[in-house]
Design goal:
The complex is a heterodimer. Chain A has helices at 44-51, 60-75, 93-102, 111-119, 136-144, 154-167, 197-207, 227-246, 273-276, 280-294, 308-311, 439-443, and strands at 16-18, 38-39, 42-43, 55-59, 81-86, 105-108, 127-129, 148-151, 171-178, 191-192, 211-218, 253-255, 301-304, 315-326, 332-336, 353-355, 369-374, 383-390, 398-401, 422-426, 429-434. Chain A is an alpha/beta fold. By secondary structure, chain B is of the alpha+beta class. Chain B has a three-stranded antiparallel beta sheet with strand order 1-2-3. Classes of the chains: A alpha/beta, B alpha+beta.
């Protein structure tokens, strides 16, 4: 007789959840009950096993498809477009290189970012140089290499004019225009449209013997969920371009900037991203026909400067549970090995968090617990998220924090903990694109005066 | 960890609990419901641990730690009977 061994049931950490009125709504995100076990064909467990935890993971397929869908949306609606990737969002060389392979230009806001673009082989005439601080030597290099320079102030205009005189040739420039659009009133960059400064600045450039006005640039806000605001911006910027055309000025480009939202959810946003974030088509529908209807032929080149809309969804952060605890408030705390120093955007967003491992989903008798996610820093501010609904987790469980490609790596810092590795996954293959930081690397630039190393007698 | 007993609660084994004292309702996952069922039958905590190991694919250390945390949660929700003075 064959002895049948008793089959033991799937074990999930025991959990009890108290129900309270008003915490659920019809858009509740049941999705977080389901595990996220594989990224582009690579099991999450394997990534953590090979590269450690925490770990940044970039999905090449997602990044390429984001660029392609944005380019497609705009190029189907406007005859001449270029997408200039906003470097500050994430200037990891691996990330920028993928976008440049797809055809993206570079939009940089410092000499430092300009040098990264040059090192990646981006030709000067595919670089847009923006921002309030452009040092004279940086401007001289950009001008000599044919980059597009958008002027931010009269002081900068004067510097470029002097450089042009020194170079003995006409220098093409754009003028950055700020404006009020709906609730957005960014007026610190460039020249204001409504009070006439922008037109004055254009006239000042037109009056210059050495400068040539070739473009207008606007960037009205950030994480703009309403495409209608882009329509208003296009009307205002197009209106100025039309006025200049009537004066006989032919512009080579109109740059509508960035600010396009990604699939993240702001803390004060009631509708989650999957319902609220417009598609590239909706943004393009707001901008392109508006400009085409206003501008004389031939139409100038239309430039966009997206950042987060391209990279946010292409990157996630893997992090492991260090400990779980019951807080004195009765809430549950989960301590992770990745903190706010790696995820500064958790201050803005309610990032989507999923468990990587096997779990009991609501369909097989599981429940979701509300837990506070804390980082590993010995600082009270180190909170990734309050009241995150997750299946029960225990030490060692791996979580996937999704859509963290924008403004996290570039704004992360070595605080208490060095920064972890970044890997690129593509069709089941994994490549390291940034090694984990070491203590030696972090101390490399420090110098200790010899007198501090001798012990007092 | 052997002293806890559970209050008299309305419980069904699909994982629903109603506490008639407070009016609060709770959900349990499969493992949580298993533990409550044992406690309601008056099984001492040490035996609950043995039953967990028998029925679920779990090792001693994990089950012990999880059971402790779960009992702490029950205490925090006021679901444990007061120990006799």
């Amino acid at each position: 007789m064959v002895k049948v061994r008793h089959q033991r049931a799937f074990y999930e950490k025991p959990a009890i959840v108290k129900h309270s009125v008003g915490t659920n709504n019809r858009l509740g995100r049941l999705a977080s009950a389901f595990p996220h076990t594989v990224i582009d064909g690579v099991p999450v467990d394997e990534l953590v096993h090979r590269y450690g935890s925490p770990l940044w993971v970039v999905s090449e397929i997602t990044l390429r498809s984001k660029y392609q869908s944005m380019y497609r949306a705009f190029s189907l609606r406007y005859p001449r477009v270029a997408v200039a990737y906003s470097y500050k969002t994430n200037y990891l060389s691996g990330v920028c290189s993928i976008l440049h392979q797809e055809g993206a230009w570079a939009e940089v806001v410092s000499g430092f970012e300009y040098e990264i673009a040059l090192a990646l082989g981006v030709p000067g005439d595919k670089i847009i140089f923006n921002g309030p601080l452009k040092r004279p030597e940086e401007l001289a290099r950009a001008i000599s290499q044919g980059a597009m320079v958008n002027l931010d102030s009269y002081d900068e205009l004067a510097v470029v004019e002097q450089l042009a005189e020194k170079m003995g040739r006409a220098v093409p420039v754009g003028v950055r225009v700020n404006m009020t659009v709906g609730p957005l009133t960014w007026d610190r960059f460039g020249f204001n449209l409504e009070n006439g400064q922008a037109l004055q600045a254009c006239q000042r450039v037109l009056a210059s013997p050495t400068l040539k006005l070739v473009g207008l640039h606007a960037h009205v806000g950030t994480f703009i969920l309403d495409p209608g605001l882009y329509r208003q911006m296009a009307e205002k910027l197009g209106g100025l371009a039309r006025y200049l055309a009537d004066l006989g000025v032919t512009l080579e480009y109109l740059d509508v900037g960035g600010g396009f939202a990604s699939h993240n959810t702001l803390h004060d946003q009631w509708m989650p991203a999957e319902y609220a974030t417009p598609s590239f088509e909706q943004y393009a529908d707001a901008i392109c026909p508006t400009l085409i209807n206003m501008l004389p032929q031939p139409l100038p080149l239309l430039l966009m400067e997206p950042g987060r809309a391209l990279v946010d969804e292409s990157m996630c952060l893997l992090t492991s549970v260090v400990s779980t605890k019951l807080l004195s408030s009765g809430q549950k705390g989960v301590v992770l090995d990745a903190g706010i120093n790696l995820l500064p955007t958790s201050v803005w967003y309610r990032h989507e968090v999923r468990l990587a491992g096997e779990t009991g989903t609501p369909t097989d008798g599981g429940v979701m617990e509300e837990v506070n996610l804390y980082g590993p820093l010995c600082m009270n501010i180190d909170v990734i998220q309050f009241r995150t609904a997750l299946p029960p987790v225990r030490r060692g469980a791996v979580l996937v924090i999704k859509n963290v490609g924008a403004y996290n790596f570039t704004q992360s810092m070595q605080f208490i903990q060095p920064r972890p590795a970044v890997v690129l996954v593509n069709g089941g293959e994994v490549e390291c694109i940034r090694a984990p930081e070491t203590t030696a690397y972090l101390r490399e630039l420090e110098r200790i005066p010899q007198r501090l190393l001798t012990k007092p007698a | 960890m052997d002293m806890e007993t559970i209050k008299d609660l309305y419980f069904n084994d699909k994982g629903f609990i109603f506490d008639p004292d407070s009016g609060a309702i709770f959900s349990l996952n499969t493992t949580g419901a298993f533990i409550i069922k044992q406690l309601q039958k008056g099984v001492p905590v040490k035996r609950v641990l043995a039953e967990m190991k028998k029925d679920f694919d779990v090792d001693e250390g994990t089950a012990q730690r999880d059971l402790r945390e779960f009992l702490d949660m029950l205490a925090a929700f006021g679901l444990l009977a007061k120990a006799p003075a």
